[in-house]
Amino acid sequence: MRASRTIYYLVESDEFAVPVGDHQASLMDYTALLFSGVYRDETQVSSAGLESGRQQLSQRPAHTLLQPVSSSDGSPMWSAIVYGKTAGTATTIKLREEHPIHRTHYKEQLVKALHYHAVPPGGPYSWETDIGSGRSGYFLTGGVGISALWRITRIQSDALNRQVLTFAPVQLSPTLAIPLFDHVAPELQPFLKQHFEGFQKAIVHNASFDAIDRANNIAEGILKHCLKSVGVPSPRSLSERLEKARDLLERKAQGFPMTYYGYNLAQLIRQLHARLHENQGKTVRPEVGLNLTVTVSELLVDVGLGKY
């Protein structure tokens, strides 16, 4: 397949074609890869933002296509040319089909097609604006779970003035639980959702200190929910809420949703948060904060506010 700045989407057959001459096109080689892509900025790296992106990925035809090209970075990095769908309705093109034996013979048929054009560098694209401002940019390319995400690490252009993006995988821990906040009191739901999404962003951006702060806020919200479920008022601090929880566990209070396992997980978060902020002359290694994905997930599942 020759290099091109245009790709055609064939409306009726759901296939792709490339130009081969004046107003002619042929089907794209079956070995060529094309991925649908949806851009997500920093504020959209959340459960809601990624779910919205996955819904966009399921739409046909896609708004943006990524065509992988060779990359000097090596696995797991990869590079791709970006194609954007042009506005307007489908137009008619001549699709050329070669004879299976006699390659010099072919037939043509008129088909309806939508046009995709290679994105040039320097255009008004959100990812260029974000990265130029020092913010991170991401493409969602499909898959399942909240880890199906790629961070843009480099923006280049090739000899045909096509924009080429290089991506690095973003892996949220596969153990990160799916939150279930529907059973939480309405006044507490926004707090837990805000800090859970903030926790996810901190993990994505390798912001370990922010991850510890967010985990501590999540633990506070969980303890408030647990205490409220048995009619016990919540003290102000996480430490005081944990004292109440321990008392309920020792008395084997009926209906209290937290176990000793969850209690110890919350204590671990509290102690790590205290170590981070108290003037003890000690440091917290980044990987310790980023590994809180397991702790937060297990705590959510223990009290019935999360599932894997």
**Strand arrangement across the biggest beta sheet:** 1-2-3-8-9
In round numbers, the mean pLDDT is: 86
N-end to C-end Cα span: 44 Å
| Quaternary structure annotation | single chain
Poorly predicted runs: none
Radius of gyration: 26 Å
Structural class: alpha+beta
> What summary fits the major beta sheet?
5 strands, mixed, barrel
Q: Summarize the helix and strand pattern as letters.
A: EEEEEHEEEEHEEEEHHHHHHE
**Overall number of strands:** 14
Percent helix, as a range, is: 25-40%
Shape: elongated
Q: Bin the strand percentage.
A: 25-35%
Question: What is the overall number of helices?
Answer: 8
Written description of the protein model:
The structure is a single chain. The protein is α+β, with helices and mostly antiparallel strands and 308 residues long. The chain has eight helices and 14 strands. The strands form two sheets. Strands 1-2-3-8-9 form a five-stranded mixed beta barrel. A hairpin with a 7-residue loop joins β8 (91-98) and β9 (106-118). α3 runs antiparallel to α4, α4 (208-229) crosses α6 and α4 (208-229) packs parallel to α8 (292-302). It is elongated. The relative contact order is 0.12.
